[in-house]
Amino acid sequence: MTDHLNWTATLVFVFFFALVTVLGFVAANWKKADLGDLREWGLGGRRFGAWISWFLIGGDLYTAYTVIAVPALVYAVGAYGFFAVPYTIIIYPLLFLVFPRLWRVTHRHNYMTAGDFVLGRYGDKWLELAIAFTGILATMPYIALQLVGIEKVIGALGFPTEGVTAHLPLTLAFIILAVYTYRSGLRAPAMIAFVKDIMIYIFVLAAIIVIPQQLGGFGAIFDAAAAVYAKKGGATGLTLQPAQIMPYITVVLGSAMALFLYPHSLTGILSASGPDAIKRNAVALPAYSLVLGLIAMLGLMAHAAGIVVKNPQEVVPALILKSFPDWFVGFSFAAIAIGALVPAAVMSIGAANTFTRNIWKPFIHPQMSGAEETTVAKVVSLVVKLGALAVILFVPTKFAIDFQLLGGVWMIQCFPAIIFGLYTRWFDGKALLAGWAVGMLLGTWLAWGADKWVPTHGVFDWFVAYNGLIAVVVNIAISAALSAVLGSSAPDATKPDDYEIDQIAVRR
Amino acid sequence: MRYLMLFIPVMVALSVPLYNVIDNRWIGIPFFWWFQLLMIPVSVLFLLAAYLGDRK
Question: Helix A125-156 vs helix A168-184: angle between axes, to the nearest 10 degrees?
Fold first, then answer.
């Protein structure tokens, strides 16, 4: 099975993987506290300062799958794949303006999840359930896709990609991850994120200096890519075709609205030590966006390097193999694989917190003690990861990809309840629930093509827009209309000051 | 009010027809690509201004 194995690269790869495994276990003793308390296991005690948060949130949002999928899309279609860049320009003003409010109210009331907040704000446990269900549903395929990132680099190291042993390295890697996440909670990915992010920065810096030199500069790279797209035809090219402009704008906007609603994003943000740490991160996190933009251009460099792959997702590993000496191949692949571990861990923790607090506790076992809460969350984090592994082992990858894209359409349907809720209690819980339900159904229906997922739809033959955005506009209209009719009389556990005034952090 | 200026980079990023062109190139990179990359540090300046304004 090891005939084609690149030994040097594999040894470097295994070294770094072993290093972060040790860190994952050591992390249990970092900022020592009682890990039997869900706030400690699942949110790191909300004590991560600006620096730790920068590494953790950066490592959490810019996933390994991004490193594989964004250049893959650029490789396949060109300009349209670059939407990830304007998208990351929009998210940070949003983070800066909106999420300190969420941090304050969740801290004041000991909320841990979006579902907790929605229950407190609207007093409606069915809306809480809807928000929690959406978060978990959208997260599952996202975790599975992190595995695709690991799988692609392991395959490129020369491990067999077919037969009985094909999934062995992947399975092993994921079981190790599951065990140290179970033990150390959010501290594990927070510590590993330091290694991951530094490795990714080194990899990108090397790639952006070395590869253009080998290929005769950026001019030559873009010219070569232009020639490939001209030959390929269709909706490809170095700029957007007129028909692609509205889809580009609406996908950018819709993706940005959805991003911070995911449980793993919220877990990263709420584990910060305060509003100031969040604002500092809104200023500093765009450094990762720059890296992402440069990574995206690897898709063009691959054309100049003459790389032809059947599956675009193999383009980054193939380019790395072609451009770098073996030891740095091992380093770069390790960066990508470790890059998958951080978000996979945070996602499973976010999903576990959500399931425990907003599904298990209110609907199955209301009298749960703090220790029981943590036990449930730890077990759920294992189950979620095994589920993701099963998806990759037994279901075609395309299913996970379509499912994840649908996840964005679903996640954005929580926008009115959560984000509007941070500013006003004018909306009624039941009205938001109705809006959410219609948005979910409409979004799914729009995305359901004859034989595959379709991302966009025409709006009255006027322009073409992202399905998630169309659905959330309808969602908002219904929520507003019903709220106006019903009024909003349910109790609200929060006060206006809870959102505005920085509480002096007092450790309980 | 100073928060309103944070909408400037957002609006520019969404004004796609504005930058959907090849020329002018910078070190060989078409406008569409380098302009969006440049927007990242520019947006940071706006965020930084908002942050420093907050601290005062």
Answer: 140
Contact B37 A93 (CB under 8 A): no
Q: Does A104 contact chain B (CB < 8 Å)? A: no
As assigned by CATH, the class of the A7-399 domain is: mainly alpha
DSSP-derived letter for residue A442 is H
CA contacts within 13 A on the Cβ side of A56: 31
Cβ-nearest to A245 among B16, B39, B41: B16
> Of A32, A16, A7, whose CA–CA distance to A339 is shortest?
A16
**What whole-number percentage of chain A has pLDDT above 70?**
96
* Secondary structure of residue A489 in the 3-state scheme: coil
For chain A positions 145-174, those within 8 Å of chain B (CB to CB) are none
Cβ–Cβ contact A253 with B under 8 A? yes
Comparing alpha-carbon positions, the chain B residue that sits nearest to A82 is B33
Spell out which residues of chain A touch residue B9, defining contact as CB-CB under 8 Å. Answer: 89, 93
- Quick check: B36 and A220 CB within 8 A? no
Q: What is the mean pLDDT of residues A103-107?
A: 95
What percent of chain A clears pLDDT 90, i.e. is strictly above it? 69
Task: Look at residues A447, A419, A504, A464 and name the one whose alpha carbon lies nearest to residue A121.
Answer: A419
B4 and A CB contact within 8 Å:
no
* Interface contacts A/B by beta carbons within 8 Å: 100
Q: Is B38 on the interface with A (CB under 8 A)?
A: no
Query: Residue A2: its pLDDT value, please?
Result: 58
ipTM of the complex model: 0.95
Q: What 3-state class would DSSP assign to A83? A: helix
The closest of A12, A10, A20, A46 to A31, measured between CA atoms, is A46
Share of chain B above pLDDT 70, in %: 96
Q: What is the pLDDT of residues A434-491, one digit of tens each?
A: 999 999 999 999 888 656 677 777 777 677 889 999 999 999 999 999 999 988 778 8
Q: Delimit the domains of chain A by residue range.
A: 7-399
Q: Assign residue A456 a region: left if phi > 0, alpha if psi is -120 to 50, beta otherwise?
A: beta
CB A136 within 8 A of CB A408: no
8 A C-beta contact, residue A195 and residue A15:
no
CA-based nearest residue to A484, from A427, A434, A414: A427
**A289-316 average pLDDT score:** 93
- In DSSP terms, which residues pair with A448 in a beta bridge? A453
A82 contacts on B by Cβ (under 8 Å):
32-33, 36
A198-202, A351-355, B22-26, range with the lowest pLDDT? B22-26
Largest CA distance in chain A: 70
The overall longest dimension of chain B from CA atoms, in Å, is 43
